[in-house]
Amino acid sequence: MAALSRRAFIGGGVVAGVGLAVGVPFALEGIGRSSTGEQLRSTARLPHPFTLPLRLPPTLKPSSTGGGVDRYVMTARKANAHILPGLTTAILGFEGVFPGPTIESRTNRPVAVTHRNRLPIPMVVHLHGGHTPHESDGYPTDYIYPEDMRYLRQHRGMAGMDGQPPTPAGDVRYGERIYNYPMQQRAATLWYHDHRMDFTGPSVWRGLAGLHIVRDDEEDALGLPRGHYEVPLVLTDRAFGADGSLIYPSVDGTLVNTPGVTDPYVAGVLGDVMLVNGVPWPFAKVDRATYRFRFLNACNARRLRLRLDPTPDDGFVQIGTEGGLLAAPLQHNAFELAPAQRLDALIDFSHFPAGTLVTLYDDFGDDRMHQIMRFRVGDDIGPQSTAPHVLSTIEELDPATATVTRSFRFQRGSVGHGNGWIINEEPFTPTSVAARPRLGDIEIWELFADFHHPVHLHLDPFQVVGRGISGPGQFDAGWKDTIDLSPGEQARIAVRFTDHAGRFVFHCHNLEHEDMAMMANFVTTT
Ligand code: C2O
Ligand code: CU
Question: What's the pTM?
Fold first, then answer.
């Protein structure tokens, strides 16, 4: 079966853990819930909510800006983080921090990031939402091995483990790799994260994710809240052992041999501690002013329904989504956000009296996971602003002009000898091609889901045409790169791939589903 050949052992040509060692029978505790997944239980002593101050991820400075290119160097390494009071947590972090440092770019100004791997495991970096050529897109087998794995492999080769040097499965580099991002795309909230074949879930869970914000003149001209009043909020659920370590139910804790998680987490791994920018249930002091918040759901599997209480006058004034600004602002009292989705919203605290406590809830979360963070409105008065009536122009992809309609079924199924998640009956394998779109053509993709599947396409954003017999949902506006599908749902999206010919992936962004084979290739052609 395809699942066998796709899992070449990365260390020395030894095929280990053939197939997926996931539990049988398939226990789907998540059925009927707001998320498809199973919640872990922390044993660590946890802080009282709203006692720790919110932090912001550091911004990474370019190592050079000459020649019209912003160059960055980022080193992924093991580090000790202080997440829970009095405990240290071993993480894997870009620059040793979680979330990783934020990169800020301008539209049409190329960026080159040298990602160095000082981890004990291979990695792959994908810029999520990036309009990126194949070579730099972080294809799941385009590994960056740690430098010393070169020695390991040669050593193993000499020891005659298989008689000859192992054949790399993809475009393998040792120690580091330069990712070139043309940045020919609109202003938007992108993020970068590990994307390694079969092991994205555990690596992102341990910390390998960060923001990459793109700005442009169009957005700058709108006078949206900036500086102190523009705040990124990276939301992740995690679970901690008594010693402060991150818990994750990997079948194989080395994260190199056997992919997958133990039953019942095959449906998705949910944490019982909510972190905002790496801080559990933080508080943030805010001025009586209008803020712009960039929400990112960076959870492995947890869907969120964000709500503020008390509700500000206009609730969330949505100005953007994954692919940047909407055409016009949209008002929401609550907002659903699936894994990998982003919400860009203005929140006006200016009419609250000083001292008001405004709590951000996740209405999908139970017990302590019902709350996310709290804002304390201070005495200071800052700029109040309302979103312009017109934010941007969005070209509508007309489904009537589509040249192809494709159908993809996202469902559970067998992968190797175990259970996993598949698309159109096939588990992911780098060699099979599910679609060959022509660059520049508009295509309709029909997506069917058995459980919650946040479906993400690489290379270009898309537009939601409809759900079932209805039009797009209330959270579907604008250029999306991830669509939140509910159990039993069918949706249609319109997509047009442009510029870059090559092999890309689309997949479910429930990271456990992705690791357990819910991914497929499309190859764009001219
Ligand atoms: Cu956020 Cu293919 O990934
Ligand atoms: Cu899924």
Answer: 0.92
